[in-house]
Design a protein that fits this description.
Keywords: Coiled coil, Nucleotidyltransferase, Transferase. The protein is of the alpha+beta class. Helix content is about 75%, strand content about 5%. Among the domains are: about 150 residues, no CATH class; about 150 residues, Reverse transcriptase/Diguanylate cyclase domain (Alpha-Beta Plaits), CATH 3.30.70.270. It contains 15 helices and 7 strands. The strands form 2 sheets. The chain has a 5-stranded mixed β-sheet, with helices on both faces. It has a two-stranded antiparallel sheet with strand order 4-5. The protein binds guanosine-5'-triphosphate (GTP). The site of guanosine-5'-triphosphate (GTP) has 17 residues, from strand 1, helix 12 and helix 13.
Length: about 525
């Protein structure tokens, strides 16, 4: 009786241990799931961060993200990782390939330079040495930029030599080039730090005393500024791609390592489970085969000791597995946090850049690209709501006279003041963009045909009343405005044409007036 109850309690103990093992296994599964969730978040962040760099890479990461969502198919995800790593590397190699093309371009250009007539011997020797240096490959953009600058300086020296040989006089073509360069740099959005320099250049290009040398210098400066900007952008992208590549490699290593460890402990556990089952069968066999109670007790005790031993090994194995899982989850979390921070700062830069690209650098009003986008939006809203929408084109009258009489930078300041006044005279739902030169486009929704003339005349009067004072002279600056309402069935670009034609009429009917088509 006593033996029976001890046997029962041992079997009870055994059941408890088996139950504890089951719970431990479930905990491991939970931990594994939390690791996979962290990994999925990581891949999501990374896929968003990489977006736009390379379409194939975008698709691969999106696919990877979907597959990661299904925990049961982790082993299907692993073969994708080397391909993604390959794409990141190939993007890097693409940049390096471009550098190589740049190097061969410089080599060709320097050869052309040597063919220029009357090139001084000293300069020709320097260019030859420079060409020898060009035979070494570039490792980064920072190898490339100084070479471009150096070559521009050789070019300048060669040209100046020719100018000294045969003095160049400023021809109409030079004036035309200078006008076109000024227009071109008005359309390019330069970073804040470069704007002062660009404005000075515009003054020089508009000046009556323009020289061929100054025109060349202006080209050289603009080229240098653009190269600096390109180099800065490329360096940032390269750095970011490298960080992503490193992070991905380390994630791949962690996942592979933890996957092979999990497989290994799975095998060990299966082996231990088999041994425990054998021992339980042994206990059952002993119960069936041995009648003598003391012999039976001894056998069962031996089998139970074996079972205990296997359970202890299994528990130690599970603890080690859990510790390893915890460690890789922590490492993944850290990688994720680092990459999130990196992605955030990169995204902020992109947003900043996007904002800059939509603003006119002189007036800080939305530019033509922003106008196109807003026209689209307003037109869709108009079609959807069946509301009213007006397009107005405003142009400063006799603006050329301001430039001619008081200088280009006074003209620029006038444009800035008028832009600000236009913006301030509109409601939040209304929109004004600098269309180009001294021309602005307004989009005005939800105003009736009765009210539009009054609204636009108020804007016109507001500009007229700005107390401009140039060289102690009180100047009145006026606007001519043409406007048209978007008609049902009409495209907004056709409305724009009608508004522009109305402006043309306003200009020819004495200016300083509003004409509604
Ligand atoms: N200062 C400055 N001038 C500019 C800018 N963009 C265009 N302009 C000048 O604006 C002037 C426009 O002249 P026109 O097209 O003849 O027009 P207008 O003198 O305003 O005469 P109407 O429009 O007929 O009243 C030109 O002299 C351009 O050089 C700019 O960004 N800054």
């Amino acid at each position: 009786m006593n033996d029976d109850s001890s046997e029962m309690s041992q079997i009870g103990l055994l059941k408890q241990k088996l139950q504890a093992t089951k719970v431990a296994l479930e905990e491991i599964n939970d931990d594994r799931n939390s690791k996979l969730i962290a990994l999925t978040q990581f891949i999501t962040q990374m896929s968003l961060a990489c977006k736009g760099q390379n379409l194939e890479l975008d698709n691969k990461l999106a696919k990877l993200r979907v597959n990661m969502g299904n925990f049961e198919h982790l082993d299907e995800v692993l073969p994708e990782l080397p391909e993604i790593e390959r794409l990141l590397k190939s993007q890097y190699h693409h940049v390096m390939g471009k550098l190589e093309q740049g190097r061969s371009g410089l080599t060709n250009f320097s050869r052309e330079l040597l063919r220029i007539k009357h090139i001084p011997e000293k300069l020709s020797r320097e260019i030859s040495i420079f060409r020898q240096e060009l035979s070494k490959p570039f490792h980064s953009l920072w190898d490339y930029i100084p070479k471009v600058e150096q070559l521009i300086s050789y070019y300048e020296q060669a040209l100046l030599q020719n100018v000294q040989d045969e003095p160049l006089i400023i021809l109409p073509i030079h004036r035309q080039l200078s006008y076109e360069l000024a227009q071109l740099i008005s359309d390019i959005e330069f970073p804040k730090a470069q704007r002062e320099q660009v404005l000075r250049l515009k003054d020089i290009l508009a000046s009556d005393s323009l020289q061929v040398e100054t025109l060349l210098e202006a080209y050289q400066t603009i080229l240098r500024l653009l190269l600096e900007n390109i180099a800065r952008e490329k360096a940032t992208s390269q750095e970011f791609l490298q960080t992503l590549n490193d992070a991905l490699t380390s994630v791949r290593d962690i996942v592979s390592e933890s996957f092979s460890q999990t497989q290994h402990s799975q095998q060990l556990k299966q082996q231990l489970n088999g041994e425990i089952n054998n021992q339980v069968n042994n206990v059952l066999n002993s119960l069936n085969e041995i009648d003598e109670i003391s012999q039976l007790k001894q056998k069962v005790t031996e089998h139970l000791a074996e079972i205990q031993n296997r359970l202890a090994r299994k528990e130690a194995l599970e603890q080690r597995e859990m510790a390893l899982l915890q460690k890789s989850v922590n490492t993944l979390r850290k990688e994720l946090a680092d990459l999130s921070a990196e992605t955030l700062s990169y995204r902020e830069r992109l947003c900043e850049q996007q904002k800059i690209n939509q603003l006119d650098s002189l007036t800080q009003l939305p530019n033509r690209a922003a106008l196109d986008e807003r026209m689209d939006q307003e037109f869709r809203r108009f079609q959807h709501n069946n509301s009213t929408l007006w397009v107005a084109v405003a142009d400063i009258d006799h603006f050329k006279q301001i430039n001619d009489s008081f200088g280009h930078s006074t003209g620029d300041k006038t444009l800035q003041v008028i832009a600000m006044a236009l913006k301030n005279s509109l409601r939040d739902t209304e929109f004004v963009a600098r269309y180009g030169g001294e021309e602005f486009v307004l989009l005005i929704p939800d105003v009736s045909a009765n009210d539009i003339a009054q609204l636009l005349n108020r804007v016109r009067e507001k500009i007229k009343n700005i107390p401009f004072k140039f060289k102690n002279q009180r100047i009145t600056v006026t606007l001519s405005i043409g406007a048209a309402q978007v008609l049902n069935g009409e495209h907004i670009l056709d409305t724009f044409e009608r508004a522009d034609a109305a402006l043309y009429k306003a200009k020819h009917e004495s200016r300083d007036r509003v004409i509604i088509d």
